[in-house]
Fold:
Amino acid sequence: MAREPRSLAGRVVAITGGARGIGRATAVALVRRGAKVAIGDLDPALTEQAAREIGGGAVGLPLDVTDRASFEAFLDAVEQRLGPLDVLINNAGIMLLGPFAEEADEVTERQIDINLRGVALGSKLALRRFLPRRTGHLVNVASTAGKAGIPGGATYSATKFAVVGLTEAIRAEIRGSGVETSVVMPVPVRTRLAAGLQKGRGVGVVEPEDVAAEIVGALERPRHDVFVPRSIGRTIRGSALLPRGATEAIGRLMKTDRVLAGADANARAAYEREAGVAAAAPALPPAPEAISPPRAAEAERQASAAEPRTAAGGEG
Structure:
């Protein structure tokens, strides 16, 4: 007999990368269920505007998922304004495409910083709130690219594989604690992140609202593996039983090997320029008080000369 769905009314949910795409659609769906929602994103003005448009008392807060102090401040503010955190949805992410051998180190590092380190940091900070209370639900948004490496997006695939593995390990570590986990693995989603992607045969593009509906469903009836659409989960599991050569041949036949590698660079230019803008930004110099006196003057000069650092974040 099917379990009755849990009520989400009054539940406090924080969503990273919540001003656009999957994050925003999920916020809308949760508010409709009566949840108390906070979204975090890089641009404070955009985030506040998105929260107003989402309605239902949604709160918009600034967040750089790669910065511990920023993430802690975000979660503290969520709890101060809405109450103890019940759910964290680690959704923020970026995708920068191209042949791996030609990928700049800064581009590699930026995707790892946001897609993996940001998720790991958020997971850790949320668990430190959940575990003492013996309740909570951690939702990490990955991708079907976290189950099969996709040409043209090697680093992106690597970060999503890592998120899948991270969430599986967390699930095993906290078994019996009362805290639940889910990892969300959609096919390409119609957001800015997926601009210019090629279509594979039999692999469509889903809407942000489709992903949001599955996330809400996983909160109402908890499950760990959340594939979007659900049918892709059966395909991936079936492929795992085949020899590698056969799996790769099927991928070429279905043109899934061209989904990322064949992306239209012109259609993606604006998104990739924005998503990669921090890659070349200079690192902040150490705080003057942390530097020995003979070097303090030089550090102050460097700090004043450096351009402002662009914070890291994005949409799933």
The first helix runs from residue 21 to 32. Residues 12-305 form a domain with the Rossmann fold fold (CATH 3.40.50.720). The longest strand covers residues 179-186. Residues 224 and 256 are 25 Å apart (CA to CA).
